Amino acid sequence: MPEEPGLDDNAPLFAQVAQRLSEQVAEGQLAEGGRAPSANELAAFHRINPATAAKGLNVLIDEGLLEKRRGLGMFVAPGARKRLLDARREQFAARYVAPMVAEAGRLGMDLDEVVLLVRRSADVALGPRASRKT
Amino acid sequence: MTQTISCHGVARRYGSHLAVDQVSFEVHGPSVTGLLGRNGAGKTTLLRLLAGQELPSAGQVRVLGGDPAGADALARQIVLVREDQAFPDFKVGDALRAAGWSYPRWDHKLADALVSDFDLPSSRQVKKLSRGMRSALGIVIGLAAQAPVTLFDEPYAGLDATARRLFYDRLLADYTEHPRTVVVSTHLIDEIADLLERVLVIDRGHIALDAPADGLRGSATAVSGPAPAVAVFVSGRTTWEHRTVGPLASATVADMLDATDQARARQLHLSVAPLSLQEVLVHATRPDRAHQAERVGS
Questions:
Q1: Which CATH superfamily is domain B3-215 in?
Q2: Which of A20, B39, B165, B292 stands the most exposed, by the fewest C-beta atoms within 10 Å?
Q3: What does the alpha-carbon distance between residue B47 and residue B7 come to, in Å, rounded to a whole number?
Q4: Is the ipTM of this complex over 0.85?
Q5: pLDDT of residue B2
Q6: Distances (CA, A) of B256 to A65, B215, B294
Q7: Angle at the Cα of B105 (from B103 to B107), degrees rounded to 5?
Q8: With 80 as the cut, is the pLDDT of residue B288 above it?
Q9: Of B176, B213, B256, which is closest to A43 when you measure between CB atoms?
Q10: Nearest CA-CA distance, residue A131 and chain B, Å
Q11: Nearest chain B CA: its distance from A130 CA (Å)
Q12: Residue ranges of domains in chain B
C-alpha cells in the first residue's frame, strides 16, 4: 500500500507533529507570516509531552519553515508554503503514480484503461470542464 | 541540566529476597518518566527508596542532591502517591488541609479545582471512599503538592477510563505550567505512552531498559503475509515471535523498518505494523524471551 500523505504511525511522535504542521502550512491553514502554535499548545492538543512537541517544532525551524521571533513565539517563514508544495509535487509520481501503475500491472490492466479511470475520477472530483483544461 | 534523581548500585533486600538489585540511573532536569514492569518487578520498592520511605541495603540514592531518607526538609520536596493513602480517619477536606501543611508549595486553588473535577465529596471520611475516589484523592494530593519530585505509584486503581483521562490531562496541563521531575509507575502503558519522555523498565529488580520513549515506539515491527514471503523478509533478522495459520505467517521483527525495508515489504505483499510502546515492552520483559529471540536463517 502507498503511504497516506497524512500521519505515518511508524514515525516517532515528534516527526508526526512536524508532519502535521507542514501539511497545515502547505494547505494554507497556517498562513505565511502567521503565528504557529507553541510547544505547549501542541502538547495539550495532541496530548503529548511538551518536550516532544518542541522537538517537532525544532524540525521545522531547522528546515527553515518556521522562524523564532524573540519574545513573540514561532512564525511561518515566508516562502514556506511554496517550498512544501514544490517538494510534494516532486514526490507525486513516486508516491501516487508508481504504486498505482504497479497495482494495475499486478491486476493485468492495460495502461489506457488506467488513464481512462484517472480521467473519470478527475471528472467526478473537479468537474468535466476543469479536468480537461490544459 | 541539574540532576534531580540518581541511583548508583542500589539494592533493597527483604530477608533473602532482593526486591531491587544493582539499580543505577539518573534523571536530569524536568521530565516525565514512566517506570514500567510486571507485578512484583520492584517498581514500588524503587519509588519508596526515591521517596526516602525505604533505606537501600546497598548503593546510594540521591534526590535533589541529598539523601531522601535524611533531612525532613528534603522529604517535603518529594511526594509519593500510592493507592493506600494516609489519613483514613480524616474527612477528604481535612486530609487535603493536612497534606497542604506537609508541602510548602501546596496549591490550594489547584486542589479545589481537582476535587471538583473528580467529584470528590469533601465531607466524607477517606476510609469510606470508593477505591476510585481514594485514587482520585491521591492524584489531587500528588498534583497540588507541586513537589519538585512527584512520584505516582500506579495511581489509577478503581478509576474508570474517563477519570484516568482526566488524570492524564491534568497531569500534562500542570506539568506544562510547572515542569518538574515526575515519575509514574504504571501497567496501562499505552494510555500514558505519549506523555512520557523516558521509559525505565524494571524486570525482576533490575533495570531492563532505560530509553527515550519516542525512540521505542515502532522499534519493533509486526510483519505478516504469505508464509514464504515472511520467511524471506525475516531471514537474517532478530525475530521474537513466529506464528503461522494455513498459508499465512506473522513475525515480530526487533527492528525499526527503514524506507528500503518498507519498500521491500510492499514488494513481497507483506503488511507491516509498528508495535506500540506497550507491545515492545511486553516482548522486552516476557519470562521466556531468551527462548523467543532467535536469529532466523542468515
A1: P-loop containing nucleotide triphosphate hydrolases (3.40.50.300)
A2: B39
A3: 11
A4: no
A5: 80
A6: 28, 10, 17
A7: 100
A8: no
A9: B176
A10: 31
A11: 34
A12: 3-215, 221-295
Q: Which residues 27-56 on chain B approach chain A with CB closer than 8 angstroms?
A: 31-32
The 10s digit of each residue's pLDDT in B134-191 is: 999 999 999 999 999 999 999 988 899 999 999 999 999 999 999 999 999 998 888 9
Asked if B172 and A44 come within 8 Å (Cβ–Cβ), the reply is yes
* pLDDT above 60: residue B280: yes
| Nearest chain B residue to A9, by CA | B274
Angle at B156 between CA B150 and CA B157, to 5 degrees: 130
Query: How many CB pairs (< 8 A) connect A and B?
Result: 53
* A89-102: burial string, b at 16+ Cβ within 10 Å, e else: eeeeeeeeeeeeee
**Neighbouring-strand partners of residue B235:** none
- Is B65 at the interface with chain A, CB within 8 A? no
Residue B127 pLDDT > 80: yes
Residues of B in contact with A48 (CB under 8 A): 194-195
Sorting pLDDT into bands at 50, 70 and 90, what band is B1?
low
* Residue of B31, B179, B215 with shortest CB distance to A12: B215
* pLDDT, position B216: 82
Q: List the single residue in A with minimal CA-CA distance to B34.
A: A49
DSSP helix/strand/coil, A100: helix
- Helix spans in B127-182 (H): 131-144, 161-177
- Residue B82 near residue B98, CB atoms below 8 Å: no
Contact B195 A49 (CB under 8 A): yes
Report strand pairing: B221-226 vs B271-274.
antiparallel
For chain B, percent of residues with pLDDT exceeding 70: 95
Write out chain B residues lying below 8 Å of A9, CB-based: 218, 273-274
From chain A, the residues in CB contact with B217 under 8 A are: 12-13
Residue of chain B whose Cα is closest to the Cα of A15:
B214
Which residues contact residue B297 at a Cβ distance below 8 angstroms, ignoring those fewer than 6 apart? B231, B234, B235, B236
